[in-house]
Amino acid sequence: MKGSLTIVGLGPGAPELITPAVTDALKDSTDIVGYSKYIERVKDASGKSFHPSDNREEIDRAELSINLALQGKKVVVVSSGDPGVFAMASAIFEVVDKKNISIDDLSIVVLPGITALLAASARLGAPIGHDFCVINLSDNLKSWDILKSRVIAAAKADFVIAFYNPRSKSRKNQLSEIYNVLRKNCKSDRIVIYANSISTESEAVFETTLSEADASSVSMKTLVIIGSSRTKKIRNTGYIYTPRYSGVEKN
Amino acid sequence: MKGSLTIVGLGPGAPELITPAVTDALKDSTDIVGYSKYIERVKDASGKSFHPSDNREEIDRAELSINLALQGKKVVVVSSGDPGVFAMASAIFEVVDKKNISIDDLSIVVLPGITALLAASARLGAPIGHDFCVINLSDNLKSWDILKSRVIAAAKADFVIAFYNPRSKSRKNQLSEIYNVLRKNCKSDRIVIYANSISTESEAVFETTLSEADASSVSMKTLVIIGSSRTKKIRNTGYIYTPRYSGVEKN
User: Fold this and answer.
1) I want to staple B204 with a disulfide (CB 3.0 to 4.6 A). Which of A133, A166, B123, B196 is the partner?
2) Nearest CB to A239 within list B58, B96, B245
3) Looking at CA atoms only, how far is residue A97 from chain B in angstroms?
C-alpha cells in the first residue's frame, strides 16, 4: 500500500482555530509525528501510533515521518501555527531533496494553519494592516552580520517587523542587540508588542515602546512585533493598527 | 441590546479551510457585511441580513458595519484570507479611530483566517521556510519612490517577497517596473511564482524565473512570490522550498 505524508498546522492553540481540513487529516491518519508538546494537543485521537520527539530534532523527525510513509503508513506531521512558517514543512522538504525521493514513491500534502502572527494580529486589532516582514531568530546558521543587515533593511523600508523564536539558548543577548540596531534606525516611540500563547489559557500580551523594550522578558515562544512608523494605538480602546496607506516615511 | 462586530477571515476559498471559530461567528450573527463575492461564499446561511458591496468601498463598508453594530446588531464582516492582511480589519480600525468610538459602545473581535500566502505556500511546498516579507501593491496612496525603496531593501536583505494585489487599475505597468528593479538587485534565476485562487476550482499555479517573468499575465487576484537567493525546486518532485538556514548571501 502506498503511504502518505501530510504536514499540518494546528494553529496557535485553541481547538476552534484548527481548520476542518487538518481535523480530517488527523482522523484519517495511522501515525502522528511531532514535537511532544504538539502531540499532546491531538492525544485524544484513538487508534493512532504517536511518535513524539524533542523540539530541536527537526531533521530526525522529518526522516522518521518520511520512512513511515514509505512503509505505507498514513502519516501526519503536526506543527504549531502554520507548518510552512519556521516549522516542519521546510525540514521535510530538505530531507526529500537530499535523499532524492521521487513523487512516485511518496505523496506529500501540506495543510496550512493560523500562524502565530495572524493570531496575534487578530487579538491586537490590525497591526499588519500594511507591508510587513517576518524574521526567525532561532536560526543558528544565520550569521549576526546577515541578521543585522536584514533588520536594518526592514527598518529602513518601514516594514512592520515580526520576530519568531526571539530567544535562543546559544544567543541570549541577540534580541537586545537587535533592539540597539533598531534604535539607531527608527524613532524611539515605535510600538513593540510581546504576544504569548495567543488563544490559550496562558495568553498574555504586553505592549511597550522601542526605547523601553526589555528583551529579557521574552521567552522562546514569544512573538515580538515592532510597529512601522505608522502603527498606532487607538485612544480609549486599546486596539493597535497600521493604516492601509503608507505616505511619507517618518523614521 | 449591545451589538457586536466580528471581523472574520474566510480563508482562500475551500470550505474546509474556514476555522470553526469563523463558522460559529457566522451562525451567531444577525447581519453579514462584505464585498459581494465574499458574501456569495456564505449565502447559504439562513435568517441573516446580507449587506454586499463593491470591492473598493472599504471605508463605506466599515462605517456600515460599525453603524449596524451600534444599533444592536450582531454584525460579521467577511474578508477573504485573513482580515488583518490587506483586508477589512485595518479599514474598520481606521474608522473606529477617526470617529472616537469607545470600547464601551462597541465590542470588536477579529478572527484570523488562512491568508493567500499561507495557502500558496502549502500548495507549493515550503517557499516561506525562511525570512520573508509581504507587500501590498494595490495601495494608491503609496508613492512609487517608497515602493521602489522597499522592494530594493527587501531584495538586498534576501527576503522571500510576496506581493498581494499585484495589478492595479491605476498603475498597469507597476509590476513590470518592480521586476526591472528586482533584476538590478537579484540574480536572474530567482524563482517567481504566480498563485491564483488556491483551494478553489479555478486554482492555477505558474512558475518562472525573474529573467522570464511576464507581469502581463497576472491579475488583481494573483499572489506573486519571488524566491530568496536560496529558494529552490526539488528535482523530480516539483516542490519548491526555502531551506531554514540562510548562510551567505549569493545575490
Assistant:
1) B196
2) B96
3) 6
CA nearest neighbour of A141 among B229, B128, B157, B246: B246
A110 touches chain B (CB under 8 A): yes
One-letter amino acid of B231? T
Cβ-Cβ contacts under 8 Å, A8 against chain B: none
Cα dihedral B161, B162, B168, B171 in deg (nearest 10): 0
pLDDT per residue as tens digits for the range B193-237: 999 999 999 999 999 999 999 999 999 889 999 999 999 999 878
Cα–Cα distance for residue pair B19/B11, rounded to 1 Å: 8
Q: Identify the residue among B144, B241, B244 best suited for mutation to test binding to A, counting A beta carbons within 10 A and taking the highest.
A: B244
**Is the Cβ–Cβ distance between B106 and B69 less than 8 Å?**
yes
Residues of chain B with C-beta less than 8 angstroms from the C-beta of A16: 19-21, 24
Q: What is the pLDDT of residues A104-131, one digit of tens each?
A: 889 899 999 999 999 999 999 999 999 9
Q: Return phi, psi of residue A101, to 5°.
A: -75, 130
Q: What is the mean predicted confidence (pLDDT) over B5-15?
A: 98
B1 touches chain A (CB under 8 A): no
For B29-71, the pLDDT digits (tens) are 999 999 999 999 998 778 899 999 877 788 999 999 999 999 9
ipTM, two decimals: 0.95
Does the distance separating the beta carbons of B111 and A131 come in below 8 Å?
Answer: no
